[in-house]
């Protein structure tokens, strides 16, 4: 009975070994590689076991639009044409990576003579892109005690950039209470959006500000911009308003006096302008052309 069991076990082991030999098996030394833009990167696809002498090897790029060939029929094609080569037996080497190469890639090997004739490996490639110079906006002058917002935007870097603000070449901390130099300041700093908001600026908040956009590939900075904080002259504003009110009152009084004295009258009496007197009973008034006065004639009613 024991001999029969041993023989059965040996048979199963030999069958397993036989099937393993007749199976194509792939492996990779890195399924999540990364590189910086314009550098080279290797997507390893190694054949661990195979018996077919001339297997079919294909590489596909997988995006939201679906898979597309980058290696087919022993030729590099698609996005990687003239920028990649195959290292025997199946490793894909990208010689000049660009940001558009960030995607998933699938290595497929078909071995017709093997019992398990197909295997594949998916590799997730990330091409890091250094940020460009960010666009910074800093108000030139802000009234004391008023709010102010500084903004910083950069959209080219990958992965997405994070932001730092600097005042007079010294980094602005996330929490002002952690630094003696910024302890009296009142602001909020958002490292993800790049906004620095002052709730109420103080004199010590004035200075030269610049922003840094950074990610794993590097960083870039905008040029420093000066922000000034000035006091509001309340007394001067009140005096100015009073002066304007007094001037308006003087103009109004002057116009009223002019109307009363008839300077704005629309009609003036002249030698040719007259008011026709009311007609009396039985008298008609006639003006002659030769005389500048009026004659009247009487008419009697019988």
TrEMBL record:
One of its GO terms (molecular function) is protein homodimerization activity. Residues 39-119, 131-230 form the Ig-like domain. The chain crosses the membrane at residues 234-259. GO terms for cellular component: bicellular tight junction; cell-cell contact zone; plasma membrane; protein complex involved in cell adhesion. Residues 1-23 form the signal peptide. The keyword Transmembrane helix applies. The lineage of its organism: Eukaryota, Metazoa, Chordata, Craniata, Vertebrata. It comes from Seriola lalandi dorsalis. The keyword Disulfide bond applies. This is Junctional adhesion molecule 3b. Belongs to the immunoglobulin superfamily. One of its GO terms (biological process) is cell migration. It is a single-pass type I membrane protein. Keywords: Cell junction, Cell membrane, Disulfide bond, Immunoglobulin domain, Membrane, Signal, Tight junction, Transmembrane, Transmembrane helix. Pfam families: Ig_3 (PF13927). It is found in: Cell junction, Tight junction; Cell membrane.
